């Protein structure tokens, strides 16, 4: 599919003029006619859903920035003013706040789909790597946005994360000073976080263009996980439009219904109660936690008793995704035909929920030290911390055992083409008739 020839023919004088100078119309038309595997299921719709979420976040973010005041004395009040005095402000803010959660739901499903069906394997390594970069930027953008309301959890979460960055040898100190804009979290810090939070979504949008470019060149993966030779494209593929635009449109409607439930009926369900209290540096919350979608990484951070070791493990949990195409040495892409990896994948998904659960729980343990609200534990550890450690171990083990599983695993037979498993039932019915 990477050698798909353009079928676009300009029909008007303007289209011919535009096509000879900036062929953006041709790019859109070619994408709509792109040969797409005929067996794609609904797990493939989350790429389009993610683009929708990004657009919603950018538009609502720009509208909120018109009224938000990045000042420590006025930030919390400006958010309340948006909710009460700005026309439609409550709706804009709730869409933006819950949109972040919807974004991460779609992102996690999209990445797990790519992991299960082997979408990171050759020739699609760059699609996966750019996707991981988008995910990393998404995490950074979400954290920066979490700080902006300047509630109790926002402020103390910023203190925790910035001090963790400061624990990095050599470069940690200068980076910490640059982020804070001074010796402590203050007005300069909030201004920097607001500026970066406004900038990063546009950087994500640029990476999405690269992601789509790489996808257009390498072609879509499919649930069977086989490459489609040029001579079989007529049987194994369909044009993206209208077949998948309609299918994706239906999935988008269902996703928007879930989105609307949280916006209109339960808008604060995914937030934290302490963030409705103005930031007070003199009062520390009993349990400082990030938003729910970052809890697994927070559990990994907390599972390591050493402060710097926890930082390394947390960033390593994201960094290991970048080298995944070279860790998995199996010639079979889809885990549908890999019995051992299928079991390990199911355990990996369950393990992610366990990490999130552990990250949300309050550790009840003997405190031996405190580093700017980041607590180190020793000896009398509770079950959640130990469970988080075992879950962290499995998280990394899942990726590190892939080369060895590829050597020992006996895969199931893989179909020789897409059209055979898809069209075989129809052919059997015609034969009986």
TrEMBL record:
Binds 2 heme groups non-covalently. GO terms for cellular component: respiratory chain complex III. It is a multi-pass membrane protein. Residues 14-224 form the Cytochrome b/b6 N-terminal region profile domain. PROSITE patterns: CYTB_CTER, CYTB_NTER. The chain crosses the membrane at residues 42-69, 90-111, 126-148, 155-176, 196-215, 249-265, 308-327, 339-357, 384-407. Component of the ubiquinol-cytochrome c reductase complex (complex III or cytochrome b-c1 complex), which is a respiratory chain that generates an electrochemical potential coupled to ATP synthesis. Belongs to the cytochrome b family. This is Cytochrome b. It comes from Brevundimonas abyssalis TAR-001.
């Amino acid at each position: 599919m990477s050698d798909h020839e353009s079928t676009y023919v300009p029909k008007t004088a303007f289209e011919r003029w535009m096509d000879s100078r900036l062929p953006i119309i041709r790019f859109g038309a070619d994408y709509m006619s792109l040969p797409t595997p005929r067996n794609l299921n609904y797990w493939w719709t989350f790429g389009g859903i993610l683009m929708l979420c990004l657009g919603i976040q950018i538009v609502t973010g720009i509208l909120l920035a018109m009224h938000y005041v990045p000042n420590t004395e006025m930030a919390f009040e400006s958010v309340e003013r948006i909710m009460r005095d700005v026309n439609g402000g409550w709706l804009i803010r709730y869409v933006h706040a819950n949109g972040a959660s919807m974004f991460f739901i779609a992102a996690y499903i999209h990445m797990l789909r790519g992991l299960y069906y082997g979408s990171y394997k050759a020739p699609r390594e760059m699609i996966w790597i750019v996707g991981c970069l988008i995910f990393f930027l998404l995490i950074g953008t979400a954290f920066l946005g979490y700080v902006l309301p300047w509630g109790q959890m926002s402020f103390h979460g910023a203190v925790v994360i910035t001090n963790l960055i400061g624990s990095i040898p050599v470069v940690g100190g200068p980076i910490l000073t640059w982020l804070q804009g001074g010796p402590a979290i203050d007005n300069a810090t909030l201004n920097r976080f607001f500026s970066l939070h406004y900038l990063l979504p546009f950087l994500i949008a640029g990476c999405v263009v690269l992601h789509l470019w790489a996808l257009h060149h390498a072609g879509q993966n499919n649930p069977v996980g086989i490459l489609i030779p040029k001579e079989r494209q007529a049987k194994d593929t369909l044009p993206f439009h209208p077949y998948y635009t309609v299918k994706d449109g239906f999935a988008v409607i269902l996703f928007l219904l879930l989105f609307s439930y949280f916006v209109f009926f339960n808008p604060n369900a995914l937030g934290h109660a302490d963030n409705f209290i103005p930031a007070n540096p003199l009062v520390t919350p009993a349990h400082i936690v990030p938003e729910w979608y970052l809890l697994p990484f927070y559990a990994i951070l907390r599972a390591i008793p050493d402060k710097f070791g926890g930082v390394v493990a947390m960033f390593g949990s994201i960094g290991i995704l970048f080298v995944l195409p070279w860790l998995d040495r199996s010639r079979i892409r889809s885990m549908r035909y890999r019995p051992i990896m299928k079991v390990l994948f199911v355990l990996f998904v369950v393990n992610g929920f366990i990490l999130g659960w552990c990250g949300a729980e309050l550790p009840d343990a003997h405190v031996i030290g405190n580093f700017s609200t980041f607590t180190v534990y020793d000896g009398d550890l509770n079950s959640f911390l130990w469970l988080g450690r075992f879950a962290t171990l499995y998280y990394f083990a899942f990726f590190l055992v892939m080369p060895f599983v590829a050597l020992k695993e006996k895969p199931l037979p893989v179909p020789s083409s897409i059209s055979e498993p898809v069209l075989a039932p129809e052919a059997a019915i015609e034969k009986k008739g």
